[in-house]
Design goal:
By secondary structure, the protein is of the alpha/beta class. Helices cover 33% and strands 24% of the residues.
Length: 458
């Protein structure tokens, strides 16, 4: 069977393509921007890629077209499909029907931490010999790919609340029918899709409604929005997890206690009883939260917490999640996906706890749809305040003034309208011993590599 995937270079659709190829489908696809790293990963798997959405890419006609949620009416490929009656399906629906049926699905949902928590959960199941399948919106270092079928019955998926397709406005995660569901947190995001926080909570309520009574919900303790969702109705046993900064307090269900300020060492307790300890290279209380969620979810799959803690201690991280990618002239460079104020604040705090009083320079590209709409502009300055210096990139079409939104940061913050001048300013300012944190959920015009090259040539 030959399928054509529209929007194939997106993280989700690219992972889906890898799964389809592994199942033996003949897979091809097209995208408006065919570029690495997803393009090279797909080509290495024998998947043909086509640039743009020319209807000619759909000739001869494939047996089925899988349509990504970035495409809408007016797209020439979409119009051709509708005019010619081609068989089409959304990515989440294809995944549910073709891959997830008869699998034990473990889904990780929430505004933040999905990729990291999913990756840790996969690694725990893998270390326990369960050979899980997975589809994650990032690349776990321990696997080197974002998706695989796996040989066991368990399948871990990063469960996004974004809409499914132009013809299906339900959230993607509704299609996954998980038996084990993690809800890390709920905040307002995706302002291009949802009107307000109530819209988002409604989608999470719909998700909770389809988890069976034999399943398990793992929810972060103390999140008022999660509590509000559960109050609307819940038919599944719920366990809560949370991080304490200090000794075990004997709280309910799952608890982590920090044994070091940077979160690199912590203990795990269940119902007040210590189950094990973790010593790993990840930093930040938010990552301890992610690990605790994964340990709790793995327990529902039959993995003893002590075994899970041992696996977490060997976890090597996720690409683009506070990833140290270069060092030049004594300056350390990091890449991180943070684009929401909560994630920005947590990432800066994690790095600060790791490096102490050394100078931290934060570099940000406000690229997400929500950030570009200015929804979080009033929270931005406070989320950046933990850095010593902030260098912000203002795209020409941003639509709001970064400098005006960050005036309270005074001369610690500078705004640039080109990556060339930003790189030169960084190269002039940064000195040996500094740590430069680059945050973007996109390519940032190749700034990471360009900056490393500029520093190396200095």
């Amino acid at each position: 069977m030959r399928i054509h995937i529209l929007g194939i270079c997106g993280t989700f659709m690219g992972g889906l393509a890898l799964l389809a190829r592994e199942l033996g489908f003949e897979v091809e696809g097209s995208d408006a921007h065919v570029y690495p790293p997803m393009s090279t990963q797909l080509e290495a798997a024998g998947i043909r890629l086509k640039e743009g959405y020319d209807p000619g890419h759909l000739q001869p006609e494939p047996d089925q077209v899988v349509i990504g949620n970035a495409l809408s009416r007016g797209n020439p490929a979409v119009e051709y499909i509708l005019d010619h009656g081609l068989d089409y399906v959304s990515g989440p629906q294809w995944l549910a029907q073709t891959v997830l049926r008869d699998r034990h699905v473990l889904a990780v949902a929430g505004t933040h931490g999905k990729t990291t928590a999913s990756s840790i959960l996969v690694w725990i199941l893998e270390a326990a010999g369960l050979e899980p399948g997975f589809l994650i919106g990032g690349v776990p270092v321990d696997f080197g790919c974002s998706a695989r079928l796996g040989g066991g019955r368990h399948f871990v998926i990063e469960a996004d609340e974004y809409d499914t397709a132009f013809f299906d406005k339900s959230s993607k995660f509704i299609h996954y029918a998980p038996q084990t569901l993690v809800i890390n947190n709920i905040e307002f995001d995706h302002a291009d899709i949802f009107r307000d926080l109530e819209d988002i909570k409604r989608q999470f309520h719909h998700l909770v409604r389809i988890v069976p009574a034999s399943g398990r919900l793992l929810c972060r303790r103390g999140d008022a929005n999660i509590e509000a969702v559960l109050e609307r109705g819940c038919w599944t046993p719920v366990e809560f997890f949370g991080v304490q900064d200090g000794e075990v307090c004997g709280g309910p269900d799952w608890e982590a206690s920090l044994l070091s300020a940077d979160g690199c060492r912590f203990s795990v307790s269940r119902d007040g009883q210590v189950q094990g300890k973790v010593s790993w290279d990840m930093a930040g209380a938010h990552n301890v939260d992610n690990a605790l969620a994964a340990i709790a979810a793995a327990a529902h799959a039959g993995i003893e917490p002590e075994t899970a803690c041992g696996a977490v201690s060997r976890f090597r991280g996720v690409r683009r999640r506070l990833e140290q990618y270069a060092s030049a002239g004594g300056i350390t460079l990091y890449d991180d996906f943070a684009h929401h104020p909560t994630a920005i604040r947590a990432t800066i705090a994690a790095l600060r706890n790791r490096i102490g009083n050394k100078r931290l320079i934060a570099v940000l590209e406000p690229r997400s749809n929500t950030m570009r709409m200015g929804v979080h502009r009033d929270e931005l300055a406070d989320s950046l305040a933990g850095a010593d210096l902030m260098y912000l990139f203002q795209p020409a079409d941003l639509g709001w003034d970064l400098a005006a939104a960050t005036t309270q940061l005074d001369d610690r913050c500078r705004v640039f309208t080109s990556t060339e001048t930003l790189i030169e300013a960084l190269a002039t300012t940064a000195r040996a011993g500094d740590h430069v944190l680059i945050m973007s959920n996109g390519g940032f015009e190749g700034l990471h590599g360009r900056l490393a090259g500029r520093l190396e040539s200095a």
